[in-house]
Model the fold of this input.
Amino acid sequence: MAAGQSHTVYKGESKTLLLTISDSDGVRLDITGFTIEFQVKLKDGDADPPLISKSVGSGITILTQSGGTLGQATVKIDSADTTGLTAQKHRYDVIVIDLVGDRQVVVPPSNFWVKEVVNQA
Done:
């Protein structure tokens, strides 16, 4: 998932997003033990609770921190996360908290489009 990348999901769709975390020089970081927070809200600055919220162990999985998966994690969007959302533009961001408690916005507020489908299960 590139910084500031827009995503589109269809109501009721399951989707897995790939997150790659690197330093300011583009070097991937070992994110073992980091906290990662993914949130979707209707607009920037909306009060809690978020419409979708994921964290490590609850929808976010840190991949093996070596080789091609160094610095990577997945964010699992379940069908139940999107079924009840209004089909429109939402906003999301991703925050990482390292082992000393420093917070970093790794994906700034970006578009998260929810679209209608014809075939609703």
